[in-house]
Amino acid sequence: MTLDLTPNLDPFALARALSGKHFYDGAFQAGRSGKTFPVNNPATGAEIGTAPFGDEADVNAAVAAAKAAQKGWAKLPARQRGKLVAECGRVLVNHVEELGRLIALETGKALRTESRVEAGVLADMFTFFGGLGSELKGETVPFHPDMMTMTVREPVGVVAAIIPWNVPLLLMAMKAAAALVAGNSVVVKSAEESPLTVLRVTQIMNSVLPAGVFNILSGFGPECGAPLVAHPDVKKVSFTGSVETGRIVYKAAAEKLIPVTLELGGKSPMIVCADADTDKALAGAIAGMRFTRQGQSCTAASRIFVHEDIHDAFVAALKAKVDAMVMGDPLDEKTDIGTIISGGQFDRVQSYIALGRETAGATELACSSMPTDPKLAKGLFVQPRIFTGVTNNDRIAREEIFGPVCCVIKWKDFDSVIEQANDSEYGLAATIWTRDLKTAMDATRRLEAGFVQVNQNLVVQPNLSYGGVKTSGLGREASLESMLEHFTHKKTIIINMA
């Protein structure tokens, strides 16, 4: 089966054409078991396509193809590999609109505010890493005058990349682009909720890359992800997902003594000082809480600490801004906020909203308004919620919800708010909003997070090292550092010239 590589702006037709296939060894492949599962549009509940129920047989075939291709790929000069990966980025630029529409259809993320943007960053990530081929350098070591001593960087081999459903294009690119330029081959395990757009990306990239270098499987964790991690020919695992699943992946990889990169959960604090530029801070709260993504982000600023002097005015203004956002069909250009990804996640979010209502002292503010289009009556829409009157010790302020629910917590003492911000099992991201440089610098030193920003709340970008501390993960992504430290090993070479 070969799909036309001309951009297809009809996401429904594209979803049907991509249905029921893995992609490995340079071609679409049917699942070995013949079993498939439905892929649904969360805005309507309708089935838009299917994906194969990947199992150990599929894993074995994909890894065998990747292992066979990796040797030849690694022999290419690093700059040549980089040029090919950068060319993938240039080709993907031509598909930004197509990919944006398809990811909106299968994830429910709004096209204008989320999905089109993600498709653009996908292309940029491959272009960025493609330019780093020349940076795969070794060192000379002054060990002894009669010995030439040097180090070289070598690829680890076959890399397993396991990605989640919330930003599958970006997270696949962060893993795959670095691994490929470093000389590895890659087998991706897509999220069962969003397998189609990443499948299309794999097909597009295989028009540039040698067969078997970049492969993708769909399926569920126990049947597909577990045998992929456990496969003896997989030499590195890069995983993004929940803390619970991350621990399972880490234990399985430890049995083989292979390196692992983990990007896990978060409950990110946003500290707004009394002297902050409130307009910027409000915009930062909207962006940081990822309301346009229905809060489905590991870095979501779901704990917003606001100084007592401005707390009430800040909450009122924040609610007004979210009220003005439009919930609706993710493919409609007027839509700001789309849907929750799945029925299971929808129920989880609703349970936390109920928990917030039961929390002593809490006040619930429902924002925006549900769509009125009858076609969307079965859609997984949830009105964003702001809870005030809670403490940092309440469950709703401590547990990752992964939905459009944030807590605004009043504070007075700076040392106390820093302590509260750090009082979390997570340590992925944090922000501080103030006009005072000394306060800002003090906070950046003391906040326990891997990604700290002052007076802004940017999402992950190419060339910005990204990763967490504590249970938010291990290792870094999106940077030269990640390519060198996580996708190569260092070999020491000594030549005795005496």
UniProtKB/TrEMBL annotation:
Coiled coil: none annotated. It comes from the Bacteria. Keywords: Oxidoreductase. The active site is at E263. GO terms for molecular function: oxidoreductase activity, acting on the aldehyde or oxo group of donors, NAD or NADP as acceptor. Residues 31-493 form the Aldehyde dehydrogenase domain. Belongs to the aldehyde dehydrogenase family. This is Aldehyde dehydrogenase. The lineage of its organism: Bacteria, Pseudomonadati, Pseudomonadota, Alphaproteobacteria, Rhodospirillales.
